[in-house]
Amino acid sequence: MTINQIQDEIIEEFSLFEDWMDKYNLLIDLGKNLPVIDPRYKTKEYLIEGCQSKVWLHPEFDGEKITFTADSDAIITKGIVALLIRVLSDRTPQEIISSDLWFIDRIGLRQNLSPTRSNGLLAMVRQIKLYAIAIDAKT
Amino acid sequence: MKNISDIRADFPILNRKVYGKDLVYFDNGATTQKPQYVINAVNEVFTSYNSNIHRGVHALSDIASEAYENAREKVRQFINAGQRHEIIFTSGATGSINAVAFSFGEKYIVPGDEIIISCLEHHANIVPWQMMCERKNAVLKVIPINDSGEIIFDEYLKLLSPKTKLVAVTHASNALGTIVPVKDIISAAHSAGVPVLIDGAQSIQHGITDVRELDCDFFVFSGHKIYGPTGIGVLYGKEKWLTDMPPYQGGGDMVESVTFEKTTYNQLPFKFEAGTLNFPAAIGLGIALDYVTGLGRAEIAERERVLLEYAVARLSLIDGLRIYGDSANKISTISFLLKGIHQYDAGTILDKMGIAIRTGTHCAEPVMARFGIDGTIRASMCFYNTEEEIDLLGKGIEKVIKMF
What we know:
By secondary structure, chain A is mostly helical.
């Protein structure tokens, strides 16, 4: 599936829930089910600045695609990272750089997360794109 | 005291809903809500007599200047300062501390001198002193705290030395709620000939403050934490210090005469009030102090003591909830963590229930480091909160625990 198809899929999944608590329960589930990151990447080097909770994000490039693994000490944050990974992991650097992320607004995450956390979300997206740009520049 | 529904009716914002639910506002340690009287007073400035203070010969400037000076007198009476010119208006407690750190530092600090603060301080009572120490090659000393979040007095006494030039401590911890025995701290410092600054940002709104009884040399607080507008604060200083210290900032109103060769400074308090101060907020602060005095400060303290006791009892029923800071002497602030749940996760869900609490380090990272944690959930209450709201918080927390 393309980045845009997955975004549509996520929007549909979230639209099933009217109640905010249910949407958060979904995020919590996603957070709990996020595959664990290799502990050696839980270092300052992979820590994303700008998040109120700690987020570690590690890119792995196989010559064609970038795979991201991540972790956070807060579960809701981890749920958001899980969504970003679902959309942007296993993509070519070019796909990531040229992607336009609208699912965040459409599932109401940006309005409903506190501004500082929302900034953290933007910091995560920015970091993913920066990794893609850096890898793209080397290849 | 007025009954609780009449008190709540004085604060229009308390009627609003958040996400369709009644607002439960437990973030009073960050800023308090404003009674209608304060909102009206600020509104009245702009609708009927806005004009720059101490400048014009015209009627409006006179009215504004008089209202501003009346507000100063109200502050003087509220903290029982000896003289009106010992009350300096600033932008807030942070502005007040920065002013003292600069002016006191310029006048009295030489390399090797020491400043004592405590582990409980808000960053606003740490960073200005670090900056001053850097400028002057002075040394910052820190009074440690025990597991209850109380200052260890004997350690403080050990830190006092002939090198000590100033002690700057908080009256009440914003992160844990501990009330610090500042009277004992001040008398010990004075017996060593050392002046003391008290950060009253978290104490002024919770009881009676008498700067002459305390005998502190400086006392600072923010207007917005005592039901007044944002952007106004107070620096109280004993006349002898304020007279001796050089001004912090230069500009209009703080001067007596200016030529390119030499400027002479205005008398107190104007020497420390450069530029156009936030006089509408100062006037609003005066009304806020009237309001608090009208409710009764002893009554407020008693009401908040009851709320704290109720909240501690209610939250203690919750499995896996740990309260940080269990001093017997506290303002109505509770810091806690839930076992296995990150404070931001809990805060996000409580927010969705309309409950406003604060999560994080509360601008007091050293306190968090002392307990080996990277933040807490903080519920800071005041007289307009109710037992019913505490029950909602309790139930909210129980729901959060089930979700994670």
